[in-house]
Amino acid sequence: xxxxxxxxxxxxxxLAMDSQLYIVIPSLEPLSQIISKHLAEKGNSIVYxxxxxxxxYAIAAEEPRVRYRFCSPHDLNAIEHELYWVERNISxxxxxxxxxxxxxxxxxxxxxxxxxxxxxxxxLNENQPQLSLTYVITPKSKEKSSDSLADLHLKLCELAxxxxxxxxxxxxxxxxxxxxxPLEGVCVSIARDASDLIHFLSTNRAKAMQxxxxxxxx
Length: 218
Description:
This protein is an alpha/beta fold. The chain has 6 helices and 8 strands. The protein has an 8-stranded parallel beta sheet with strand order 1-8-7-6-5-2-3-4, sandwiched between helices. Helix 2 (53-62) links the parallel strand 3 (45-50) and strand 4 (66-70).
């Protein structure tokens, strides 16, 4: 049974206009680009880390608030280097968005764990807001099966328990399920709604929201 940690959002979220600096670490899904663009439209600055140069230059040319940085999304050392580069050359980071396919979650551990972000967060002074880390997960199955959602929910519960001592980061999970339709046909509306939530979770108004799982379906 899926308990109330997985919430289906059908309401209009408050659209906070606080300007934030986001690091977005994409997967191969087009959702990464849509979420980045929508976050930028809300007045945020985005640093988009990818080793796909054509994709990186295209999104930066289309949206001036998105800055492309060449970085493998799977190279933890390179990602850590980029965190410090952004802090030195742009501004402190408010939020990190990591796009994850469920197939990449192995043994209840994210492919890009919060460990590298914890090192960065530990250097923030007390006057800076808590670093927000949001994992955006696309389920393994294209069908909205209760069994597959239950399995994913159990994985997220395991992750929450492993972080019970606290990592110094505000961690939440957003699950996007396109249902039976092709992803390209529904990802725009789902991604825009998810972007509103991601933006809200990174603000001070959501400072008490940690280790929650939110579910979006078309």
